[in-house]
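User: I'm writing a short report section on ligand binding and want a predicted complex to refer to. Could you take this sequence and uracil and write out the structure as C-alpha cells? A short remark afterwards would be nice.
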Amino acid sequence: MSSCGRGDAATRRALAEWVAYLREIGVRDLAAAAPRPVGERAAPAPARPSAPPAKEPARRASRPELFSLADSASGGPSDPVARLREIREEIGDCRRCRLHERRTQIVFGVGNPSAGLMFVGEGPGAEEDARGEPFVGRAGKKLDEMIRSVGLERGDVYIANVVKCRPPDNRTPEADEASTCSPFLFAQIEAIRPRVIVALGAPAAKTLLGSRLGITQIRGTWGSFRGIPVMPTFHPAYLLRAYTQENRRKVWEDLKAARLKLDEGP
Ligand code: URA
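Assistant: Sure. The C-alpha cells for the complex follow:
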C-alpha cells in the first residue's frame, strides 16, 4: 500500500471514530456546510400555523445554578458540538444517583446542536433505555407527530430529558434524582441556546421554571429559563393516555405558540 493509501485509511478511521462520537452525543445528521444558525430551520416550513399571538412571558422565580464546565472546548464556548461533547464526557459512566443501578445506558439527547427549538421530557423509558435515544417509543412517535404538526422534522429540533437514566418502572424521577441530573440538561441548553423550549409534562416544567403548579395549570403560559422562553405543555405519554379532543387542541395551541415565537426571530 502506498503512503497515500495508508493516509487515506487513517483519515477514514479517524472520520469513522468522529462520526461514532457525534452519534453518542446525539448528533444524527451532519450538514455539508457550516451548522445552521440558531433558530434557522433545515427545510422550508409549510404555511405558518394560524394561531392567536403568543401570550407575554410570565415571570418565574427559579433560576437553577449554572453548570460549571470550563469554556475550554476546542471549538470555543460557542461551538455547540464541542460543548455537547464536553458535557457528555463530564457525565461519563455516571453513578451520581440511584438511577444508574438499573439503567442499560445513559440517554444523553438527540438532534440538531444548533436547533432553535428544544423539547425537554422527563426521563427515558424502556425503549429509550434500550436504544440510547430519547423519545423513540410510543410517546416518541407522538412527539414526532407533534413536531411535524408545526412544520418541523425531528432532525430540526433538539430533544433531551431531565434525567438521563431510566427510572425503574417508568416512575417519575425523585426530586434528588432530578436535581442531580438537571445541571447536565441546563448545560445542554446553554450549549445549544435554543430560541424556544417546550417543556413536556410537569417534571420538565418544574425543573426549568421552578413552578409548583401542576401542568394543567401552567400549560399554555410562557415562562422563561435563563432568558429563553419556555412553553409548558402536556407530555405526549399523557396525551396518549387521555386522548381527548380537548387535550389535543390544547397541545396544538401550545405548539403553535412555540412555533410563532420561533418565527419571531431573535
Ligand atoms: N418520556 C420521556 O419523558 N422521555 C423519553 O425519552 C421517553 C419518554
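A remark for your report: Residues 121-125, 128, 134-135, 139, 161, 237 surround uracil (CB under 6 Å). Strands lie at 110-111, 117-121, 158-161, 196-200, 223-225, 228-233.
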